[in-house]
Amino acid sequence: MSIHQYGWSDEWNSYWDQWKQSFEERAGHSQLRPARLIADYGQKVKLITMDGERWGAASGKLRHIIDDPAEMPAVGDWVAISTPDGVSDAVIHAVLPRKSRISRQAAGFETKEQLIATNVDTLFLVNALNHDFNMRRLERYLIMAWNSGVNPVVVLSKSDLCDDVEARIAEAEGVAPGVPVIVISALQNEGREQLEAFLQPGCTVALTGSSGSGKSTIVNWLSGTEVQLTQDVREEDSRGRHTTTHRQLFPIAKQAVLLDTPGMRELNLWDDSTGVAHTFADITDIAQKCRFADCKHKGEAGCAVEEAVQTGRLSESRVNNYRKMQRELEYQARKEADRRRKDGRTSTTSGRRDQRSGWRRDVEW
């Protein structure tokens, strides 16, 4: 395999030449080479280099200076590596600036970002046309996509299991205005050409969706070979098991790259309000006509949003989900602010202790 099959282009090559010179002057490294992180297995990662695939790991210095896990090398990243010899693992010294980053709120009580993938151009939001069809979940995925700086595409999979496809298309278009909606059936080989239109040379396309939505099947279908394991879903509720256990890039025809991700039953948002504004643009536009600028759209006089619900311009379930997303993100923002205040106090205390002990934590680049 060649690095060019994983998205390396003249544009990246030109950028690399400029970045490498600046980085080497600051860091004192020489003979760095570009690579892309194509799979993450925990302690080690798989890289594609100019010479083919190679195992690698972050340098001790890189791990020391990065205190945010979301800034560590992730699948999709272009990185700078050195190869001490022809046998040892490659050493990752730096991550090149990312042009996009797909994130979510990490599971657990702590407010922190969990990075899913980077340098993605298009995100396929896969939703199966069976019992697991859920527009509220699709809205969450749209928020994640818009906030990540990628182009979303709604993919309605398993159309052979649906009796009223047109109605489902209308529902999807209703919550994703202006976003392409593609109906496919890998079993019947329908919709492939529409998907392949997004697989242009050098492009990276990621797939996300709940377990059992058919992401791994789509990867195999578009690749023309069984590169991913697949499992059947339970017939009674259409729920699937986590077939994909790690993130990995797969090169396909036309020199595009596909990224499969583990299924997410629950998607906790990591958002800066950009994604909400895009996803619920119809509601935010109408909200500008509310009598009060701080209207919560819950019983206030002169609320244009509630009026739109009463007249049928907006669905009540969509507005309720919009309110839920706002509450969730407001709660997340408060937790993040509390964490930053605590980190600030900890840093101040640590700094005083460092001064007393006569050493500093600064790392020279």
Structural account:
The chain has about 375 residues and is an alpha/beta fold. The protein is about 35% helix and about 20% strand. It has ten helices and 13 strands. Strand 6 and strand 7 (about 115-120) form a beta hairpin. The longest helix has about 40 residues, at about 315-355. It is globular.
Provide the β-strand percentage band.
15-25%
Compute the number of helices: 10
Taking Cα atoms only, what radius of gyration do you get, to the nearest Å? Answer: 23 Å
Helix content: 25-40%
Structural class based on helices, strands and sheet pairing: alpha/beta
Assembly classification: single chain
Strand arrangement, major sheet: 10-9-8-11-13-12
In round numbers, the mean pLDDT is: 82
Largest sheet: 6 strands, mixed
CATH class of the largest domain: Alpha Beta
Question: Could you name the CATH homologous superfamily of the largest domain?
Answer: P-loop containing nucleotide triphosphate hydrolases
N-to-C span: 33 Å
Number of extended strands: 13
If classified by CATH, what would the architecture of the largest domain be?
3-Layer(aba) Sandwich
What's the number of structural domains? 3
CATH topology of the largest domain: Rossmann fold
The H/E string reads HEEEHEEEEEHEHEHEHEEHHHH
Q: Which descriptor suits the 3D outline?
A: globular
Uncertain parts? 229-235, 240-244, 349-365
Pfam family, one: RsgA_GTPase
Domain EngC GTPase: 118-265
GO molecular function: GTP binding; GTPase activity; metal ion binding; rRNA binding
Domain CP-type G: 112-267
